[in-house]
Structure formats: structure tokens, C-alpha cells
Design goal:
Length: 144
Amino acid sequence: MRRICATAAVLALCGGVVFAGAGLAGAKSKKANSNASINVGFESGTGVPFFEGGVSSGKNGCVGGRKVTVLFARNRDKTAFFARATTDSSGYFRVDMKPGMRIGGYFARVKKTSRCKFDDSGEVAWSNNNTTLARAQRWIRRHR
């Protein structure tokens, strides 16, 4: 009789653990989506170029104060760090370009937080002259 009661108790405990585990496995992520974008802008009057972009989300807490990293897209899905910025309250960020930048594609990556998902923007091509800019744009189209 004691064995039957002990076996029943063990089975009840195991069943509870299985159902609790199934409940945790079925839980969905409550993190909000984030959408990063990047473009090239030019100072009015001087024509000095810079990267600018934004982060948008369905949740207001996922827009302002987000850390954005601008990366250079290298071959074979490798990246190189270029610069870092923090978004303002509307999600806007700006990064000044540096002299002697490499020709090619640059993109923005917004980091994940406890409430928000990460995102990578599309690549934007950069070059110092029109001939190499066209070459860089063709390279980006081929390697997406």
C-alpha cells in the first residue's frame, strides 16, 4: 500500500513538472519589433556628408535612447565597426563621416534591450566619386 501511494505521489509530481515546462515552452516573446534605417545626408552650404537614420517601433520606449552602431559591410557577411551613436527622443541619430573612409556598403544595427528586439538596416553605398559609387552600388546588389 505504501508503494502504491509513493508511486502515485511521484507520478503526480512528474506530471506537474511536465505541464509547467510545456507552459514555459509555449510562452511568446513580449519584445517589441525595432526598425532601423540609414541614409547619407549633406550639410547645407558646405556639402560635408554624414550618416543619419532612425529607429522606429510600435512601442514608444523602443525609440529614444537606443544605441545604434554603424558598421562597414565586408566580404562574406563580416563587418567592421565604424561609429556608434544614441538616438534622440524621436529615434533620430547622426554620425559624421571620417576622411579616408573605405568605399562600400555601410549599415546601422540597433542593439536589443530587455523590452525591444534588435534590427539591421539595409546597406547604403558610400564612395568619394561617382565612378566608384556606381561600382559599390553594383557590389551591394550582387551580395545581398
